[in-house]
Amino acid sequence: MIAPSFQHRHLLGIEELSREDIFTILNLADNFYEISERSIKRVPTLRGKTVINFFMEPSTRTRTSFEIAGKRLSADVINISESGSSAKKGESLLDTARNLNAMRPDVIVLRHFVAGATHFIAQHVTAAVVNGGDGMHEHPTQALLDCATIRKHKDHFEGLTVAIIGDVAHSRVARSNIHALTKLGAHVRVAAPMTLLPLGIESMGVEVFHRIEPALKDADVVMVLRLQKERQEAGLIPNTREYSRYFGINPQRLDLAKPDAIVMHPGPINRGVEIEPEVADGSRSTILEQVTYGVAVRMAVLYLLARPSSE
Amino acid sequence: MKTSKGVDLLITTRREKTKHLTQDRQLLDEGEINSSLQRITQEILERCTDPKKLLLVGIRTGGVFLTERLRQMLVSRVGHDIKIGAMDITLYRDDVLVDMPRPEVGPTELPCMLEGHTVILVDDVLFTGRTVRAALVELMDFGRPAGVQLAVLIDRGHRELPIQADYVGFQIQTTREESVLVFFHELGQNDRVVLFRRKG
Q: What is the per-residue pLDDT across A18-40, written as a single tens digit (0 to 9) for each?
């Protein structure tokens, strides 16, 4: 096996990655995971490199995860959040990015509420760009950490049945995971009320269900998505109680899946809405492990992409 | 200390190294490698007051199999187990970000706290000394060993840093452009040390 070579300048989405690219990141992540278990959780690899986390949408966990990842690589990490940014003063995204780039960062991690914002920025800066979530389009590092977690428990992807339950229509996490899992040979099912499933989702290569029980049957992995309050306000569901009754993951429904199935959630969880506390805190839940893998995966991504911005 | 991940990495880095090289001549055969390791074992025991406090750490990728062989030789001499580990120094290299694609990173596995132990770093070839520098820095990030020594199968000169080995199998004169590679029976190759030149 010749070492696969990761030739991308940016990480904008899973769609652009090959199978080999994904495995390169997962293999690296396994080794970076070990660094988080040391008493000195730091390697000098990105010493002197600058990483700017530019988050135009609120986020604590993803931004913190990127910050810790950068710091564990000895990089200098700067966080810019939506409330503190000059966008409030009416500066366009492009101008903001160009100004940031003029400070010569090595990596810009961008989260933005407009899909495609990261692709746009990548064309106008010299730094490497990492998509921290663009609208409802993609959230590649989340999918990668989800795959890393799955691999830790299941060892392989070919032939695995993964059931993604919840608001797929509005979920960049779901989209990135669907790209990743189908590329890796898993069989993906999605289940949600029809109002929360995008039209034509079958074209992504997934099996569509409008009831949760058949989707969960003999699944190896149950991936639960967050139900946002806004969906009720937009009239897409009657109320969260009804959603929970028909689509909530409780122990009885979980029994439909394989006995060794794992339960995943990108967080933050709404206890009692999309997932019952016994399941979220239960032995089959990998929710906290996903967070730990998140730092390792983001370290792997920063390691692969950081380069002097003058190149 | 072998994991299958470590072996895969060893095979791929070997292939990468020999891509632009052509074999010139064999420097050491199996018997010579074996007797060097026996001699190093003897020297380690002469210097060491308490073998129970030794920790042999192989530097990936070349030091890993040598570490296991030294362990077996030491164990047969002292009659108890000797601790070993393996360290990947890629993230500590002073040139790690220079190349694209980035070099692969392998696992680092140390079996115990370093405090109270004498660590013997083991590598196959000592050249510029930069690998050993990286290994020392990484080791210190794990703790504070009582002491660190260095055992190498081949010292080929051309140091760029003030680094020296405590135990040397063979000292060999080489030019900078040449490469010295060690082949291991653990990888299905014949044990030998070979000198390579650049192709063309």
A: 999 999 999 999 999 999 888 88
Residue A28 has its nearest CB partner, among B96, B105, B141, at B105
**DSSP-assigned letters across all residues of chain A:** -PPP----S-B--STT--HHHHHHHHHHHHHHHHHTTSSS---STTTT-EEEEEESS--SHHHHHHHHHHHHTT-EEEEEEGGGSGGGGT--HHHHHHHHHHT--SEEEEEESSTTHHHHHHTT-SSEEEEEEETTTB-HHHHHHHHHHHHHHHS--TT-EEEEES--TT-HHHHHHHHHHHHTT-EEEEE--GGGS-TTGGGGT-EEESSHHHHHTT-SEEEEPPPPHHHHHTTSSS-HHHHHHHH-B-HHHHTTS-TT-EEE--S---BTTTB-HHHHTSTTB-HHHHHHHHHHHHHHHHHHH---TT-
Chain B hits for A1, CB-CB cut-off 8 Å, are: 8, 11-12
**B45: distance to nearest CA of chain A, Å?**
31
Pick the residue of B3, B15, B102 with the most A CBs within 10 A to test the interface with A by mutation.
B102
pTM: 0.88
Residue of A nearest to B140 (CA): A40
State whether A43 and B138 contact (CB < 8 Å).
yes
Residues B128-170: tens digit of each pLDDT: 999 999 999 999 999 999 999 999 999 999 999 999 999 999 9
* B96 lies within 8 A of chain A by CB: yes
**Which of A5, A34, A307 is opposite residue B108, by nearest beta carbon?**
A34
B3 touches chain A (CB under 8 A): no
Q: Predicted ipTM?
A: 0.79
